[in-house]
Amino acid sequence: MNSSNLDKERALRLFTYLKEFSMLETPLVRNVENYDDVLWFSEVPEEKECTTPLQDGDFHDVWIEIEKPIKPPVSSPSEKIVTWLESEDELNNENKEPKLVEQIPNPNYVEDDEDESPEPRYINLNDHPEITNEFQKYMENEWMPWKEEVFRFKKVQSIYTDLFSIYQKHKNLGEQFELIVGVGLLNWKSPNGQIVHCHLLNVPATFGFDADTGVITVVPTAQGINPDLEQDMLELEDRLDSSSLQPVIELIHLLQENFWDKTTQDTILRSYVQSLSAEGVYYEEEIENKHNFANEPIVLYSPALILRKRVEKGFQQACTKIIDNIESDPSSIPQGVTRIFKTMDDLQPNGIEGMDTGVEAEDNIIYFPKEANEEQEKIISRLSSRNGVIVQGPPGTGKSHTIANLTSHLLATGKRVLITSETDRALKVLKAKLPKELQGLCVSLLGADSQSFKDLEHVIHMISNERDDWDPDVTQKEIENILKSSMI
């Protein structure tokens, strides 16, 4: 086996191992109810405070909206009615109707040992039909409508509390968990005996929360609408092959404009289940969470909001794509990968691979916006002649400061820079250390909240303005002035 074929074989083994190891670390979930939190759209009451795609309307930008309900106050009856109540506290208890007592003590009665009081000791309700009539009117016109409104309030409050709980978990758990909306609930006892109760068509989502009004919304992520058909819960032999799946995938792309295009959703789910089995059935009107495990696959529409541990599907797909690229073109293996399993000199006569940007940088000029030491200058020197440089250091040793300087220099010399991190918190810290002129050029690909979406809009706006206002002649003069002043 020659050197080229050996490199190809080793690279294939490496990425196959990484992909399969990632799959082993990700627990296979076949029942949607085993996820951390699931809220079924069918559980959202059809009330004025609640909006979901199960209702008519445009749901392109907001998929769920729940307003914070306000418990209605009870209207008190007149004072003379209050006197006859068994308990005034019952007025605020919607589960127990207030009642009148049969008699009450007579306030005009005066107990006298010598002479009998001309007033009776008690007043009987039967002797005062006007009290009964007024009480009945109060019950019909005020208390009973209030009771119905309280029950309506409780339904909305219950779903609001559930959604608020998921919102807080999603915010506190960070990037390890993801929020998705799923439609197309697959119920199936597969040929190998596996019980499957999971959604087929899923799309990433995120929360919006207005602290002033208390309104909670579920909206698309900052990355837009990116639906995906998931077959992970099925064994390999039970899944659709790539040729059968391709027509379905092409339809899924249509949902990127409007995920709640019901006609397209129905076509996708019906096509999938009927391709999966000759006896496959899709029930497009079924919105409840139902269990019906038969030998033939059944798909219910049944949309749900799901909070689950983030799966490394993107990483696995990337490994698959890399494997395919290596198979088709072994020469595409980067040296950074080859050096993992092969001793080699990474000295590059032209510096970093693929970095010919057409920008001619002056020799020996380093563009650091912050204070720098000799080590940082050495890193730039090594990058100019090597494929890569590793910079290590414990917390608090100025790595973010160093990265900010390196990033600024690379951008100033016409390079594009990709910065990766396990969480977006570290990226936010780094962005704050960059010069303000560069912060507006940084696009976050990891954040999925409303703030990330606003940041993306700001970046696009700033880049557009910079491009429109850019004058090459003026810029060239500024560069020359800076170079002259630096040489003085």
UniProtKB/TrEMBL annotation:
<protein>
    <submittedName>
        <fullName>ATP-dependent RecD-like DNA helicase</fullName>
        <ecNumber>3.6.4.12</ecNumber>
    </submittedName>
</protein>
<keyword id="KW-0547">Nucleotide-binding</keyword>
<feature type="domain" description="DNA2/NAM7 helicase helicase">
    <location>
        <begin position="372"/>
        <end position="486"/>
    </location>
</feature>
<dbReference type="GO" id="GO:0003678">
    <property type="term" value="F:DNA helicase activity"/>
</dbReference>
<dbReference type="GO" id="GO:0016787">
    <property type="term" value="F:hydrolase activity"/>
</dbReference>
<dbReference type="InterPro" id="IPR027417">
    <property type="entry name" value="P-loop_NTPase"/>
</dbReference>
<dbReference type="Pfam" id="PF13086">
    <property type="entry name" value="AAA_11"/>
</dbReference>
<dbReference type="InterPro" id="IPR041677">
    <property type="entry name" value="DNA2/NAM7_AAA_11"/>
</dbReference>
<feature type="region of interest" description="Disordered">
    <location>
        <begin position="107"/>
        <end position="126"/>
    </location>
</feature>
<keyword id="KW-0067">ATP-binding</keyword>
<keyword id="KW-0347">Helicase</keyword>
<keyword id="KW-0378">Hydrolase</keyword>
